[in-house]
Write a structure and sequence with these properties.
mainly alpha; 2 domains; two-stranded antiparallel ribbon; two-stranded antiparallel sheet; about 260 residues; Lysozyme
């Protein structure tokens, strides 16, 4: 009986220790996510491995156990490091744009990660694309008019951050209603819903990470994830002059 009692106590002690270790790990993970200076904590607790996937879009984790996905993600991250970009322009624009974009996305029920689209679409070089897309959200003239923007006769509201963001919210919401996936909605934003629908039907596949898409759309989500990573953890990717912009701005706007 004594041996059995000792064995029971030993098992309970081990379970308590495991529980404590899990609490410790979770506590550190939360501090990493919520602390303004993310690099300070990650450098100090580099051995802590979070249970959450570090790379995700709209709460959908990238399947980084897939070699193809990992390769494309690494390529995109490398393309967005300070060593490659050689400028802090992306962080400066995030500071300027996000306080306007974030509350509008929330108001329309769109995940916060969609705020990275303007940085990917027009972050480094603004203006009109060869195809005619313009503004932070890179709207084509016809699409812009469809979602309430005035384009023509000396007026181009695609360049208006607030109005173009509202138009983008309406468009993204419609795309989500069509594909029932935020990842596919983002892909359709880049490639158009008709082309994406054709690809889904042809391949009989509706998982973005398993689909074969054109080069631009096939790398689009990876670019958004990479942009999210360098904005939230600037020092990790060589941007030593900027702290993380992980928390949404509390700014509230009247957009009616």
């Amino acid at each position: 009986m004594i041996k059995k009692h000792l064995l029971t106590c030993s098992v309970m002690l081990v379970l308590v220790l495991i529980s404590k270790l899990n609490i410790f790990s979770t506590t550190i993970t939360e501090k990493v996510a919520n602390n303004g200076n993310i690099s300070h904590w990650t450098s100090k607790f580099i051995f802590i491995k979070s249970n959450a996937n570090a790379y995700s879009f709209a709460n959908e984790a990238l399947p980084v156990n897939d070699a193809r996905v990992t390769r494309k993600l690494k390529t995109s991250l490398r393309q967005h490091t300070f060593k490659t970009v050689q400028s802090t322009i992306l962080h400066r624009k995030a500071e300027k744009w996000f306080p306007v974009i974030e509350p509008l996305l929330r108001a329309y029920g769109i995940p916060d990660d969609f705020k990275y689209i303007p940085l990917v679409e027009s972050g480094l070089c603004e203006g009109t694309s060869p195809k005619g897309a313009r503004g932070l959200w890179q709207f084509m003239p016809g699409t812009a008019r469809t979602y309430g923007l005035k384009v023509g006769h000396g007026v181009d509201e695609r360049n208006n951050l607030r109005k173009s963001t509202i138009a983008a919210c309406k468009y993204i919401k419609e795309l989500y209603g069509e594909f029932n996936s935020w990842t596919l909605a983002a892909a359709a934003y880049n490639n158009g819903s008709i082309k994406l629908e054709r690809a889904i039907n042809k391949q009989n596949e509706d998982n973005y990470f398993r689909m074969s898409l054109n080069r631009e759309t096939g790398s689009y989500i990876y670019k958004l994830v990479a942009m999210k990573a360098i904005i939230q953890q600037p020092k990790k990717y060589g941007y030593t002059n900027y702290y993380a912009l992980a928390q949404p701005s509390p700014t509230l706007l009247n957009f009616n």
